[in-house]
Amino acid sequence: DIVMTQSPDSLAVSLGERATITCKSSHSVLSSSNNKNYLGWYQQKPGQPPKLLIYWASTRESGVPDRFSGSGSGTDFILTISSLQAEDVAVYYCQQYYTTSWTFGQGTKVEVK
Amino acid sequence: EVHLLESGGGLVQPGGSLRLSCAASRFAFSDYTITWVRQAPGQGLEWVSAISRIDDIRYYADSVKGRFTVSRDNSKNIVYLQMNTLRAEDTAVYYCATDSRGVVYWGQGTLVTVSS
């Protein structure tokens, strides 16, 4: 299985400041057939299912604010929240869907400092 | 837009069985691999099983292999997860999901509690 490792486990950021989460996969999730990274980022709030923010590593899902952005390729990825808002307090997960047996990072809890 | 709805969760005793359903609508169901993911209380996301769109190839996590069986009925647009010999550690919210052109769609989840 591909192991996904996120850092940090938790993050406290002041409102309006930048939050950065990294995700590293144990195997490349870049497909040579279509040159796409099979990597997604999710936001999850208590009692809710995961909400897709970013897919193909850097494509923002429809309706997601542009303060959320994804970057990276191969095995190293970053989720950036450019200006943290109160409603962004949540747990964030990265996920690879390169293999049928999806795997997820352990989650990063983002709080307001 | 893809729509998925899970049902069938509930309280079951250790060693018992439960069958979850994932009903799909608004997309060509038979063209998609359907995946089950679970989340134990306060924990992260764990892939459980998947059933392919072609040839009904089935995949299982080691933690459920031999106890869970995934199946699909394309005529009804439903995927089932038959869970046998349930353990306390199977307690979780179970989600069904699928990806279409890179976008992963999720249902709202159904809670399974294994407890005496």
Q: How does the overall form of chain B come out from the CA principal axes?
A: globular
> What share of residues are in beta strands of chain B?
over 45%
- Compressed to H and E, one letter per element, the order of chain B equals EEEEEEEEEEE
Please work out how many helical segments of chain B DSSP would assign.
Answer: 0
**Main beta-sheet annotation of chain A:** 7 strands, mixed
Number of strands of chain B: 11
Helix content of chain A: under 10%
Question: What's the oligomerization state?
Answer: heterodimer
Q: Distance between the terminal alpha carbons of chain A, to the nearest Å?
A: 36 Å
Order of H and E elements of chain A: EEEEEEEEEEE
Radius of gyration of chain B: 13 Å
Our Rg estimate of chain A from Cα atoms comes to: 13 Å
What is the mean predicted local confidence, pLDDT of chain A? 97
Percent helix among the residues of chain B?
under 10%
How many beta-strand elements of chain A?
Answer: 11
What fraction of residues of chain A sit in β-strands?
over 45%
Ranges of chain A where pLDDT stays below 50 over 5 or more residues in a row are none
Distance between the termini of chain B: 40 Å
Most strands sheet of chain B: 7 strands, mixed
Kindly describe this structure.
- The complex is a heterodimer of chains A (113) and B (116).
- Chain A is mostly beta strands.
- Chain A is built from no helices and eleven strands.
- In chain A, the strands form two sheets. In chain A, strands 2, 4, 5, 6, 9, 10 and 11 form a seven-stranded mixed β-sheet that branches. In chain A, strands 1-3-8-7 form a four-stranded antiparallel β-sheet, with no helix packed on it.
- Chain A is globular.
- The model of chain A has no long low-confidence stretch (mean pLDDT 97).
- Helix content of chain B is 0%, strand content 53%.
- The N and C termini of chain B lie far apart (40 Å).
- The relative contact order of chain B is 0.32.
- The model of chain B has no long low-confidence stretch (mean pLDDT 94).
- The interface between A and B is medium-sized, with 21 and 21 residues.
